[in-house]
Structure formats: C-alpha cells, structure tokens
Amino acid sequence: MKIAIIGAGIIGSLIAREFTKYKVEVEIFEKLPDVGWGVTKANSGILHAGYDDEPNTLRAKYCSRGNEMYTELSEELNFKIKRTGSLVAAFNDKEVKILEELLKRGKINGVKDLRILSRLSALEIEPNLSREIVAALYSPNAGVLAPWEVAQAAVENALNNGAKIHLSTKVESIFEEGEKYRLRTSKGIFLFDVVVNAAGLWADELAESAGVKVTPLHPRRGQYILLDQPNVVRTVLFPTPSRAGKGILVLPTIHNTTLLGPTSEDLLPIEKEVTETTAEGLSKVVKKAKKLVPLINLSKTLRTFAGLRPENDIKDFVIKRESNMIHIVATRSPGLTAAPAIAGDIVGEIVEKLNLQKKDDFHPIRKAIPKIVDMSDEEKEKLISQNPSYGKVICRCNKVTEGEIVEAIRHGARTLDGVKFRTTAMFGRCQGSFCMVKIMNIMRREIGENFEEIVKNFPNSHIVDGVVR
Ligand SMILES: Cc1cc2nc3c(=O)[nH]c(=O)nc-3n(C[C@H](O)[C@H](O)[C@H](O)COP(=O)(O)OP(=O)(O)OC[C@H]3O[C@@H](n4cnc5c(N)ncnc54)[C@H](O)[C@@H]3O)c2cc1C
After folding, report:
1. Cα(70)–Cα(55) distance, rounded to whole angstroms?
2. Which atom number of ligand 1 is nearest to the Cα of residue 7?
3. Nearest CA to ligand 1 atom 33
4. What is the pTM (predicted TM-score) of this model?
5. Was domain 86-140+219-309 assigned CATH 1.10.760.10?
6. Residues of the chain with CATH 3.50.50.60
7. Which residues pair with 306 in a beta bridge?
8. Tell me, what's the pLDDT at 242?
9. How far apart are CA 340 and CA 73, in angstroms?
10. Where in the sequence numbering do the catalytic residues fall?
11. Pocket residues: Cβ below 6 A from ligand 1
12. Running DSSP on this structure, what letter comes out for residue 90?
C-alpha cells in the first residue's frame, strides 16, 4: 500500500509520521527545498487553548485536543514547548462581556482551567501588561513553540521509520487511474493507492486538479516585528478579538525574544507569495502592541516578517474525502495547534477503511540536535570532552557551536536557512553578519559544496556571485 503526502508543513509532516506506524510505504512531496518552510515557518507559534473557535466547527473540534497532544509529541520528538499561559486583556466593560463570551465558548469546546481574572490578579501574572486593563481571561494551557521545528522533527522521525521525502518536487496535478492515483510532479510521474493533499495555501488548486471542488483560498497576511527584548512578557497577551480575528498580540517566543503581531490583511488569491511587510502594517503592529504593553522597545527590533494564512469564506478548516484521496484545505489558525489531532483522525480513518496493520518496529523517539545554551555546566563539559567542536562558538548572539551546525547538516540542512532553522544560528542580534561566512565554511567542508554554490534558501539565492579564494 503506497501513500503520498503532498506538503511538508506541520499538517503533512505529522500525517506522514502517523502513517509510518503502519505497514505502508509513505512518500512525502514538498515543492520547497526544506521542510516546514510554508505557512508553518511564519506564524505566531502559539499553542492556542481553544476558547476562540466557534463551537461545532472543525477548528473547535481539533484545537484543544491538539493542544493536549503536544505534550506527548514534544517528549517523543524532542522539541521544546513553553506552557506560558495566555491572557486576553479587556480595557472596558464592553470588552469584559467579550471575555465572558469566550469563557462560555471555551467551556463548550472542552477547554480546561479557563477563568476570568481581576485586574490585579492579571497584573500579578503579567506585571508589564498595561495598567489600563480592567480584567483578563486566563488560560494556563496556552504555550509557545517553534512550529518549523515540529515539522522537521516529525519528518526526521518518519524518515527513520521508513518514509521517503522528495524535496524541491512540486506536485502539478492528481489524476484518478482505476483504483490508483497518478501524481504528475516536476520530477516525473508516481502512482499511489492513497493521496493526502496537505499543500497549505495551494491545497485548493491541487484539489481542483483532481476534480474536487473546494472553497477557494486567499492569503490573509500577518505582519510581525521580532524584538531582542527578552522577558518583557511572560504569557501570550491578546487584546479582545474582533471580526477580523484574534488581534495584534505580544508574546514571548520559545527562543526568548518578544514577538509583536500579526496584522490581518486579506490579499487576492493570486497573491499567495506576497510576504513583504509594509510601513502601514508595521505601524499598526506597533500601535496595538504598545497599547497592551507600553514598555515595548522598538530599538531592539531584530527583524520584521510576514506570514500568509490560507483563508476561505467559511472561516473553518475543510477536510474533503473522495475515495482514498483526502484534501485538507484552509488550514488557517489554529492549524498549528490542531495539527496532531487532525493527523490522528485522518490516519485513523484510512487505517480503519483499508484495514492497515500496525508495525512492530515503529520508533517514536527522535533525537534532537544538542543545544549547548540549554545545558548545565556539567552537561556541556561532558559533551565537549566527547566532541570538542561543541566548545567552539560560531554564532555569538545565540551561542550556537560548530558541533550543532555540523549536526544540523547531518539532520538534512543544505542551505543557510536550513542551518538557521535547525540551530538558531543567524537568528540573533547580528542576523548572521558575524557568523554566516564561518557557517558557509563549515558547510563547504561537510557537504563538499563550493562557496559560490551555497544558497540562503531558494535556488539562485546565492550569497557570493563569483569565485571566492
Ligand atoms: C500570520 C499567521 C499566524 C498564525 N498563528 C498561529 C498560531 O499562533 N497558532 C496556530 O495554531 N496556528 C497559527 N497559524 C496557522 C498555522 O500556521 C497554519 O495552520 C499551519 O502552519 C498550516 O500548516 P500546513 O501544513 O497546512 O501548511 P504549510 O506549512 O504551508 O505546508 C504546506 C506545504 O505544502 C507545500 N506545497 C504547496 N503546494 C505544493 C505542491 N503543489 N507540491 C508539493 N508541495 C507543495 C508548501 O511548500 C508547504 O511547505 C497562523 C498562520 C499565520 C499565517
């Protein structure tokens, strides 16, 4: 039984890993050169509690369940989660009414431990929150993580359990051929028994190619500002939501920086790659974020970026089944949180339908790249005595060592961003100004590529454009 997963974002990666628990052949197709570089790369990285989603939607069905599943998943796949908790701040009585609505909705959606706090209790949890607030909705179960790391970890584990991945391979269309499906890709034609379309912003177009009608997607852009201002907030801070969405937030990231955003701007369906930030969007982020946390210091800006939500008119995920083909469309927020629960259900459905048998030798554990900054002095000493390259700091901002960069390459990094998104080297204050060349030298040595061949991320994103001595 051959199963194709199209898209190595958070959804496709977790589905692929889930299928490798069974006696099937799993192949992943990803048009980009690495895993988790689509919508999964640029978002808030929040494990939402699940009170925001309209009851009886797929978002509500999967959000709080997905949130809970992340605890076990992070232990198996060895990625970090910070259960920071979240606060929705109300600035007046009208907004307090919205908190009461959210509390009611949360209870219907099965969200645990949700409660409304007085102004003083909220300020105790979050001392830098605006003094103007009058109350806040508190959820201790919300958290933050690096979403791309989950996708990388899931794919690594899937590959260890026998899956195959075709990177830089675009699926152009899906055709039914008798009982099988023919995928026409940029690297040839492949036949499968089951196809899961988890192509994010492009899932609607791929479904169409297979003759399946789904509501079309348009991107909804979210612009962000990332600050090198650690510990300014402890929890994920939301304003009260509006029709446009959850609003502009202030949150601590898993890497101990502070993230402001996102905006919510509907773009045209043809603008699925428009990830530029704008002066207008960023000004809005600043204004709204400062209302929540006046202490924000913009002179600490590390970078700005934008992500695109795969949005549809019904504001819910769409899961369309056609025989043994499943299309997962409109994976807007909280798709990251919901992903493990969606993966469990989709795979469970196919397992039951096709009577797939469990493997005896599935290995759930993925070993992460050691992170020197997270280690105790004794752990560091032990590792460095075994491998001295862990004692050689390459990225001074985030204290990433040569050993970690070499390990990232062994874990599949073939571009500078591949190293960056596996180690956090070049993620810090200097954004690679000091360490990029050193990293290129390590890549040259480990992969055997010339300096001129090394790219930042996509083909043609070379760093040097001629022969370097
Ligand atoms: C601004 C913003 C903020 C968000 N914040 C949160 C949050 O805090 N918490 C939360 O739970 N959710 C959040 N989300 C939603 C979450 O990011 C998404 O639900 C999730 O990342 C979607 O994952 P995916 O796997 O469906 O899509 P993707 O990550 O885009 O994966 C799809 C993959 O398919 C590939 N692909 C596309 N077409 C093809 C093709 N033809 N052939 C081969 N490969 C193809 C793409 O390159 C991509 O890698 C946010 C989203 C945005 C944009």
Report:
1. 21
2. 34
3. 7
4. 0.97
5. no
6. 2-40+147-217+315-354
7. 223
8. 85
9. 8
10. 48
11. 6-12, 29-32, 37-40, 43-46, 48, 170-171, 198-202, 206, 222, 262, 307-309, 331-337
12. E
SS3 380: helix
* Residue with tokens 């025989």, as numbered in its chain: 323
CATH 1.10.10.1100 boundaries in the chain: 372-453
**Ligand 1 atom at minimal distance to the Cα of residue 171:** 42
Q: How far is the CA of 273 from the centre of ligand 1 (A)?
A: 12
Query: Which of 171, 333, 457, 458 is the pocket-test mutation for ligand 1 (most atoms within 8 Å of CB)?
Result: 333
User: What does the pLDDT look like over 147-180, one tens digit per residue?
Assistant: 999 999 999 999 999 999 999 999 999 999 999 9
Residue 3, classed as helix, strand or coil, is: strand
> For residue 334, which atom of ligand 1 is closest to its CA?
11
* 88 DSSP β-pair partners: 137, 238
| Residue that has been written with the tokens 């709204």 in this structure | 288
Give nearest CA residue, ligand 1 atom 27: 200
40 Cα–ligand 1 center, Å: 4
The encoded tokens of residue 91 equal 């600035």
Q: How many whole angstroms from 178 Cα to the centroid of ligand 1?
A: 31
**Which CATH number does 372-453 carry?**
1.10.10.1100
What's the gap in Å between 68 CA and the centre of ligand 1?
A: 20
214/199 Cα distance (integer angstroms):
13
* 72 Cβ neighbours under 8 A, 6+ residues apart: none
Mean pLDDT by runs of 10 across the 469 residues of the chain is 98 98 98 97 97 96 97 98 98 97 96 97 97 98 98 98 98 94 97 98 97 95 97 97 89 97 97 97 98 96 97 95 96 97 98 97 97 95 97 96 97 96 94 94 92 90 80
**174 contacts 199 by C-beta, under 8 angstroms:** no
Whether CATH 3.50.50.60 fits 2-40+147-217+315-354: yes
**Chain centroid offset of residue 269 CA:** 22
CA distances from 51 to 100, 101, 117, 276 (A): 11, 9, 15, 31
Counting ligand 1 atoms within 8 A of each CB, the residue from 44, 73, 318 with the most, and so the one to mutate, is 44
The two structure tokens encoding residue 416: 């500078």
- With residue 148 as reference, give the H or E element that holds it: helix 147-160
